Amino acid sequence: MTDLLAHDVLRGAVSPFRRSPRGLDRVDLDISGHLHEHWRGEMVGVLALPWGLRYFDRARIAAGRDAILRDWAETPAHDAENTGDILRSLLTQPQPTIAGSDRYHNNMIGTLRVARLLWGDRPRWGGSVYDLPAKSLYLDTGQMPTIEGFFGHFDRVARWLADRPDIRFVSKVHDIMPLSDPAFYTPDAASRHRRWLDLLAARGHGAIVSTPTVARLLTEAMATRGRPNFPIHTIRLGINPLFAERPAPPSWRPEETYAIVCGALEHRKNHRILLDAWEILHARHGRRTPWLLIAGSAANAHTDIAARLRASPALSARVRIAMDLPTAQIAQLMAGASVLLMPSLAEGFGLPPLEALACGCVVFSSLNHALADNLDPGRLGHQLGCGTLEADVERIAAAVADPAAWRCPEPQLQA
Prior knowledge:
The chain is an alpha/beta fold. Helix content is 44%, strand content 15%.
């Protein structure tokens, strides 16, 4: 049996079209880096391209990943003074700047960057996946339904696996939220996830998940597809060293402390409840209201949040949106915040609360989906949404005023 690993790297290859990485992008790049460093056998990267499903050698894929990290400014640690300048600029504006910040670069810029990643100093067309050795292991870690539209990716993979039944197919399933929580997704997203799970049930040799909740949901989904004993391995995601090594807080911080919420501006992230809370806080405390910093990329709730900020003097006075920040600066902003707020209604792996704890931040979170797998209320964090909004506001205000009284004890965090 060959030990050749054919790692699907399409998510990384199309990432230059995005202005900044989202959580799934960061996880996929981290997995790619880990495989490059630790996989002892032969390894290639698989890409769907206009001329077919192709593979590239390990060195080319590693060089492409390094270029992505440079483009996103993910490689160097950012100076805390620079992050302080960003924070000062955001919080000293008389009105919040709410740029449209489309999630994707101009198509021409993105295309040129993709070409540079693939080709480097000379054209490389890749080899046909049909020529890979028998029993090769094909690993998809990019959440296939979210990128299946690029160059017919899904259909080409499905056709290849049908033609080459000897290929062992394993997928990293980050979540199946379009099926478990369809209210937050389009019917097309649900359809793509259904096709993916159908393919996994028909051709898959196993799946990797990050949380017990996703393992349970996937087990149920596979059982309905005739695979009740489908192999599922739960492997917890680690904390990025940029968070785990206790980053320095921004060099400048406001006189009034700030709370932070991290994640794409999606409806499922439930920013609405925080905006409701900040209007209550502002009505009570006026100019002494703490700041709320929303750090994330534009998504399906961006327009609604922007409109709400424009319409509300209270929110315009004390809420700011920071978009397209590299991971190091998000870690530094967390390190300077009193409280991280995570009111999400659905989460696949829910890393921000764990990252915030590593930065020494107090965490208030809902316990939906993966968040319940990662947090123990009263020991590692504090629950949002377990009572009334008024009660949440009281607790958040108390924690912002005296974070030390609400912070997780160090021995519990180490455990």
